[in-house]
Amino acid sequence: xxxxxxxxxxxxxxxxxxxxxxxxxxxxxxxxxxxxxxxxxxxxxxxxxxxxxxxxxxxxxxxxxxxxxxxxxxxxxxxxxxxxxxxxxxxxxxxxxxxxxxxxxxxxxxxxxxxxxxxxxxxxxxxxxxxxxxxxxxxxxxxxxxxxxxxxxxxxxxxxxxxxxxxxxxxxxxxxxxxxxxxxxxxxxxxxxxxxxxxxxxxxxxxxxxxxxxxxxxxxxxxxxxxxxxxxxxxxxxxxxx
Length: 242
Known about the structure:
Blueprint: E1 3-11, E2 14-25, E3 34-38, E4 41-45, E5 63-66, E6 71-76, H1 91-98, H2 104-116, E7 123-128, E8 133-140, E9 143-148, E10 152-156, H3 167-175, H4 181-189, E11 201-211, E12 215-221, E13 230-232
Antiparallel strand pairs: 1-2, 1-10, 2-11, 3-4, 4-5, 5-6, 6-7, 7-8, 8-9, 11-12, 12-13
């Protein structure tokens, strides 16, 4: 039940402020943030995901940002309609593919078309850039909806965005201060009421993303409680595109 939240167009110097905790099986292989290219754009991923056992040849992710200032995050849905054995396509690979877009609107259109073609487990995507932000909600191929986000604080877990019945979403709305984003978002992500501490499945990383004139990416690998965020940046060079 990952948590992703955004303060959108509330802070003049940074229209996109994102906080995210990833919840996953503790046995699933994961990495620290990595750099890559999607299409012609350099990207910074909160971690590379190569599938449940780490053997998938392609690299997916649950959260990333590209050099154009567009971020993508994905959460699974608890009401997904497709059985596990029928999920033939990767939500994480779709997230990386979307990071090849330089704006949020074409990325959202691409996501809707891909999800409607089938093969994906139930999921939500947050797609946010300086010019626009969207939530794409897809319990199944026949129920794909896109919501354009208004300026404000929004959050999603494993059902629809801004689900008022979710206590973690209510907690974010009550405690996030966009004017003091790193501090308030960090407190939220490390709070005992937010962190999932299960022995087999729980919070395995936390990330903060600030997109303004520049891009600031902070990350904790592992349980974030009692730990400081580490700063990561897109390198000035990743080599020419293939």
